[in-house]
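=== How it folds ===
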Amino acid sequence: MLAVEKSLEAFRPEGMLPLAHPPLPPEAGVETLASWLDHRHVLLLRTLLENTEEAPRLPGAPALLRRVHRAMDELRRDAQLKFAEFRERWAQRLAVEVLLPFLTRNQWFVDLPEGGTALAGKGDGKEAKMLYLQTLHDMASDCARQWGAVAGRWQALQAEFIAAWHKEAVSDNSTRILPVLEVAARQGEIEAWKSLRLSLGDFAEGSFTRAVERWEGRRFADSGSLVRDLAAPWRDVDAASNGFIGFMRALSRVAERLTLAMLDHYDRKWELYLRGFAAA
């Protein structure tokens, strides 16, 4: 949760209000895990514990753990490469010389009698959303897809690791305890990360529209300056001082950090399950 909060906080450009979130209580981690547990597997886990007379045997699987660590290192490198390619691709698509003719065709510019250029309309919430949909929506969807591709690869690998773990570790009620605990939380865990990933688009839309709306009265020297300066809070994120590209870079950093946070979570999870526990 701390990694998630820090990543979202990093998206807020300097000078904008910080994200408001209450401090997490100490028991928040336990409550989150409990909310993931499937009740059917909880009942099975309780039955196993009640019918295991001797101390549970919770053996480790060091060879499999090494495989998990290697896979995680590879996925981290792949995630960083994916987001680097994403930034390169969208820096070209959001360049002033590309956005300018597109916005002109869609009649977003109004020449002012006193000189200069402004955006059409008053910039209410509906108009700001339409501007987002026409310029940045596809970018945000593509950004989430990079995260989704890494998550999909990991889930396929995890299925292989689980099959190998069960084959190696499960021999009686005692050794079934950890695998049942893992499967009880697995679907809730997957859905929690999926929900966070799917919220990226709404987060991007809300942040952009709140920053640019109510543009009536804003005057720009020309249409090129308008494109560069409209998303002013994110201009400094891009070396060329293009707010649209800066927004893209800031959002991709959030998505990349959360993708890596997801991999770190699973790395720690399998370290916990596969290192083994000494009997009490």
In short: The longest strand covers residues 109-111. Residues 124 and 148 are 33 Å apart (CA to CA). Confidence is low (pLDDT under 50) at residues 14-28.
